[in-house]
Design brief:
The protein has 183 residues and is α/β, with parallel strands linked by helices. The chain is built from 7 helices and 5 strands, in the order H-E-H-E-H-E-H-H-H-H-E-E. The longest helix has 14 residues.
Amino acid sequence: MSQLDDILTFNKDFVAKEAYVPYEASGHPAKKLTIVTCMDCRLIELMPKALNIRNGDAIVIKCAGGMIEDAYGSTMKSILVSLYELGSEAVYVIGHTDCGMHGLKAEKMIADIKKRGAADHAFEDARKQGVKPEEWLNGFQSVDEQVSRSVAVVKNHPLLPEGTPVYGLVIDPKTGALRPVND
């Protein structure tokens, strides 16, 4: 049985047993907060427990490194939708220690992509779209600096509702300990 078959079989049983009932919630965050964080699999259950949030309490936006690099990219668009359309009133950018984006070099990523079969013309196509893979695929050197840069993108956005609090934090993916980042 394939992984997809396993998932679909489990899901059918999950729905039939109405196991979703404890997770029913409004599409509007009860605690009125939006969190931008890393896609790291260690944060899936740990971070909500460490922040005392449950299903329905917060909008959670996940991306590599929790990096907000583009003021008009999909992450910032999601933040604005959460604030204007879904009722969030604060934004938390939460990076984490031991992040896979820490120290990631674009050259390594490009080599890994090519090993998996991408041709050089795929990178040329990206360049024609105005993307510089040698920059776009880089990680960061300091989680604190990355969180501060991301917070600055949000705070300085011309469409951010006036007075919206924007906080930067770093979480330990082993213990859940949080610490603020001074920006």
